[in-house]
Structures are given as C-alpha cells and as structure tokens.
Design a protein that fits this description.
heterodimer; A: alpha+beta; Phosphorylase Kinase, domain 1; 6-stranded antiparallel sheet; rod-shaped; B: mainly alpha; Rna Polymerase Sigma Factor, Chain: A; Arc Repressor Mutant, subunit A; 2 domains; 9 helices; globular
Chain lengths: 247, 172
C-alpha cells in the first residue's frame, strides 16, 4: 500500500470496514509514514470534535422529541380508531338498512294483517257461534256464488277429492271486500275458506294464529284465499297445502 | 395500545432524538425538522409490518427519513445555507461548537449527510450506500471530501483564532 491507497481507504479504516489483511497492510504503512499518520490523526480528531459538538444537541432536543413522539402516538391512535370505526360504521349501516327493510316489511304485514283478524271474527261469529245467515248448501247455488266472484267451481270441488266436504257457502265481507266464504269439514273440524279473485294487495304469506284459531293464506293462479279453523295448527297447514294444490 | 404499537414504541420511537438532530442538519429549520421526523415515523409505522425484527432499526429509520426528505423535494434549497441560520440550529455548546457547526453548514448537503451519518451516527459506508441508494465508492469519496473540507475550514478557523489571540496580547 502507498499513500494514495491509504487516502482512498481511510474512510473504510474509520468505519472499521477494512478486511483483516487490508487492515494489516494499512496499519503497517501508517506506522512507517509520518504524513499518513498525521492525516489520519487529524481526521480522527475532527470527527471527534464533530461528535462532541453535536452531542449536547441530543439532550437539548429532548422536549422536541417528546413532542414529536406524542404527536405520532396520537396519530397512530387516531388511525387505530378509524380502522376500528370503519367496520363498526359499516355494521351500523347494515343494521340501519336492515331495520328499514324489516320495518317496511312489517308495515306491509300490518296493512294486510287485518284481513286475518276480520276472517277470524267472521269465522267465530258465523261458523263457531252459528249466527243465522243465508248459507247456500246445494251444489248449484254454491257454484252460482263462486261464479259471481270469479272463482272456478271445479277448483272448489277438487278439494273434496282430498277428503274435505264442502258444507255451505255464501258471500261475506272482510273489511269492505267481498269474499266467497266456503265452509269445509273433516273429522269434526270446520275450515272456513275466504276466496276472492287476486287483487293488488298481497296477503300475509306466513301461517299465523289468533286466539284459539289457526289461520293461513295462499295465492294460486287468479285466486287468493284466507283459511280459518279451530283445528290444530298442523291440520290447518295440511288443509291449506291441499287447497292450494287443488287450485 | 396494541402489541404492534407497543413494539413500534420500543423499536422506532427511541430514535426520535437522533432523527431530529440529523433532520435539523438537513433542513436548518426546527419546525421543518420536527415535521420531517414526524412524517418519517408515520411512514415507518405504516411500513412496520415489513420491518423484520432483529435488523438495524436505526438504519431503516434514517433511510426512511432520507427518502422522505428527498421525496419532498427539499434538496434544492439545502445546499445553500445562510450563515446566519447556522447558529440557530445545534450550537448549544461554546465557541468550538459554533465553529464546527458552521463548518458543517458550509459543506454541500451530500457531503454533510455522509459525514454526519458516518462520523456522528456511526453508520458504515455499506449502510450509507444502502440508505442513500448510491454506490459504496461514491459514499467513500463524498466522505473523504467532507473530511478534507472540514479540516481545511477548521484549520483556517484555528489559525484565525490564533492570530486574534496574538493581536489581542500585543494590544494589551
């Protein structure tokens, strides 16, 4: 190594990055070269002066450093809150939409539910309590009643094939709407079927109950029907299923 | 506080003072330095998932600071530092401290950067090469020139101070 090599590699010597053999050569040259030794000593001394001059800054910067650290901690905490808040807000939004949809559905149900209540009242008065009404009992009269409301007699009669006997029929009003009120019987239970041509207002689509009465509804083709009976829930559902199938 | 935040607090935040000291030498403005370090730490936080435990956190943070600094386009106004500004930043000691920081301020930013990183912060040439995205030979030559320039300036200052002392003695 000559003085030029020492000059080029002095930075690696200062940082301790010289390989062992290079370090050996480097030190050997410096040991015998007064100029290079002086140069390195001066560099070393100036580095040390620089470190000494800047050392007090660290302590002096302590308040600023704390201020920056606190700001960073606050920003990180805020970021965490936002990260947690976004899914919570999304969940809340889903909940709000769900409540809105459920409430809308509930309003529709509430609007249509009085049909069940009216049917239950009518069945109680006319079938269970046997209030005097002008029932049609022979086949031709019943067919005439059905025809007047656009209900096909064949559909009504087809239900009899499943074991239910059509006893009587008449026109009645549920609310302000005229219905064909048919009364079927089987195994000691009577089933009121309120039928009309399907309109714009949908019927409740789920089974329901009102006091001791079971209620059901269905729509098939151009006909929609409400069923009321004092038979058990299973019997009511079975009748509704067969009536729907017959139509 | 999550465990990740706690780990960040243990790994990165203790470097704040060193980062600030370095940032002040880059920006020559206390507020800008604080902003730079804050942004550096926030970037470090966002990339903390990529940081591998056991690696050199100081080098990682200084690299982010330099990337942030140069990314903000501040390089342009750094190489020209008003002399009057230098005594406002860092000269917390006596006259010697002022001479050193004054000499440091007169260096081009590239040389000042490697000199502080190498001589003060103790980074190796290899680490600086990775930090600054420049070849190791370039780091070595910049550092060598920075040391020469510092020595020249300090020698002149020392001589000047010596002649002032002689003059003062003769006058008395």
């Amino acid at each position: 190594m000559d003085c030029r090599d020492i000059h080029e590699r002095s930075t690696l010597w200062h940082s301790g990055e010289l390989e062992a053999d290079q370090r050996k050569e480097f030190d050997a040259h410096v040991a015998g070269c007064r100029e290079c030794a002086a140069e390195l000593r001066a560099q070393w001394a100036n580095d040390a002066r620089l470190r000494e001059a800047m050392a007090p800054e660290l302590e002096a910067l302590s308040p600023s450093a704390h201020s920056v650290q606190n700001r960073v901690r606050r920003l990180i905490a805020r970021e965490r809150r936002v990260r947690l808040l976004v899914p919570a807000l999304a969940a809340a939004a889903v909940l709000v939409v769900g409540i809105f949809v459920w409430n809308s559905h509930r309003q529709v149900t509430t609007q249509t539910a009085p049909i069940f209540a009216a049917a239950a009242r009518d069945h109680t008065a006319e079938v269970i309590n046997q209030a005097p009404r002008r029932w049609r009992v022979n086949a031709a009269d019943i067919a005439a009643v059905e025809s007047s409301q656009g209900i096909p007699d064949s559909a009504v009669r087809s239900l009899e094939a499943t074991g239910y006997h059509l006893d009587r029929a008449k026109i009645c009003r549920l609310g302000a709407t005229p219905y064909v009120h048919l009364v079927y019987s089987k195994d000691g239970h009577e089933f009121s079927v309120y039928m009309k041509a399907r309109g714009n207002q949908p019927l409740p689509d789920a089974d329901s109950s009102s006091g001791k009465l079971e209620l059901a509804s269905f729509a098939r083709g151009n006909v929609q029907a409400v069923i009321v009976t004092d038979a058990p829930h299973g019997e009511c559902a079975k009748f509704a299923h067969q009536a729907e199938g017959a139509l | 506080m999550t465990s990740r935040e706690q780990e960040f607090g243990e790994v990165a935040l203790p470097q704040t003072q060193n980062l600030l000291r370095f940032a002040r030498r880059l920006t020559f403005d206390s507020t800008a330095a604080e902003d730079l370090v804050q942004e550096t730490l926030m970037r470090a936080w966002k990339g903390f998932d990529q940081f591998r435990g056991g690696t050199n956190a100081r080098a990682w943070l200084f690299r982010i600071l330099l990337n942030t600094f140069y990314g903000q386009g501040r390089k342009g106004h750094l190489s020209v530092v008003p002399l009057g500004e230098t005594d406002r930043v860092g000269s917390t000691g006596g006259d010697m401290s002022f001479e050193i920081t004054d000499a440091l301020a007169k260096l081009p930013v590239e040389q000042r950067t490697v000199l502080i990183l190498g001589a003060v912060e103790g980074f190796t040439c290899r680490e600086m090469s990775e930090m600054l995205h420049i070849p190791m030979g370039t780091v070595m030559s910049r550092l060598s020139r920075a040391r020469q320039a510092m020595r020249l300036h300090l020698d002149l200052t020392d001589k000047d101070a010596g002649s002032q002392k002689v003059l003062s003695h003769e006058e008395s």
